[in-house]
């Protein structure tokens, strides 16, 4: 989707806030702990290249979801380690080797497939993924991990690390978290040898379970200044949200009582009402279920009336404002705040999804 810089809808990204948030987490951990910044999904909507360039000197490496995200960073000049967290098919190994990209290996079946296809693993850097209870990808037993270690050694690959991922680190109950941690530790105990880098800590683990950190952390949502638990757990220290979403009024009109607004004519004015139009819609990630939520104009909450369209929304204004008046959809407007977490609560989802749905059609402006 093409970026649309010739309309007033824009995402502002405060790169200094991101560096501040990383410092906050690093200050709470052992100084020897390696830090990997998770910049998958376009850095959670913030812009992977711009974010990675801004923080490269502050972190030890980056984590992405797939090979194309890794290649984007390499093509942008990022030099530090890049780990692909998802499973890559063996046919893509040569590209990973060519660009010095570290891969995740999650099963003996994958290694068998690479063998049957005659793919050379010499010099390939990998991390082994352990499924301690997430149920997605990963080795389930120490025996399988040991076989993988032996095969990779025979193939002259370099096993740089081993890791797992917690399913409930952002929840109040620690029961399942402790179960996963115990499983991971048991597998590590059963290994013939343990790779140098051991990591299990995502943002939530780094925040609320820092006593369980091994020797590296994978920092995702926390570096962008949001609470991974939503509102379930209180943050242990201050974070600064890095993203704000703003637009402008492009049309303002006064409607009489009984006038319809939007598709389906689902909203009708009950009295004379000022209606403003904003150029953002579900094609931008401002989904249809946002009808009834508010945006901020002149520091005042203004409800979205009528259905959210593909490219536009309509809001009820307290008075007639001039065209070009700023509208805040995420962020601060005259000390009033709308957070991605509040939007997530409206949608019945999580703040991660709110950010990741913001489409590339909205240009990013870096502060």
From TrEMBL:
Binding, substrate: 136, 310
Keyword Heme applies: no
Reactions accelerated catalytically: L-alanine = D-alanine
Alphabetical keyword list: Isomerase, Pyridoxal phosphate
Keyword Isomerase appears in the UniProt entry: yes
SMART domains the record matches: Ala_racemase_C
Chain ranges of the Alanine racemase C-terminal domain: 242-367
Biological pathway: Amino-acid biosynthesis; D-alanine biosynthesis; D-alanine from L-alanine: step 1/1
Pfam families: Ala_racemase_C (PF00842), Ala_racemase_N (PF01168)
Residue ranges that the Swiss-Prot or TrEMBL entry lists as coiled coil: none
EC number: 5.1.1.1
Cofactor: pyridoxal 5'-phosphate
Modification type N6-(pyridoxal phosphate)lysine: residues: 40
GO molecular function: alanine racemase activity
PANTHER family for the chain: ALANINE RACEMASE, ALANINE RACEMASE, CATABOLIC-RELATED
Cited function: Catalyzes the interconversion of L-alanine and D-alanine. May also act on other amino acids.
Listed NCBIfam families: alr
Family designation: Belongs to the alanine racemase family.
Stated name of the protein: Alanine racemase
Protein source organism: Streptococcus porcorum
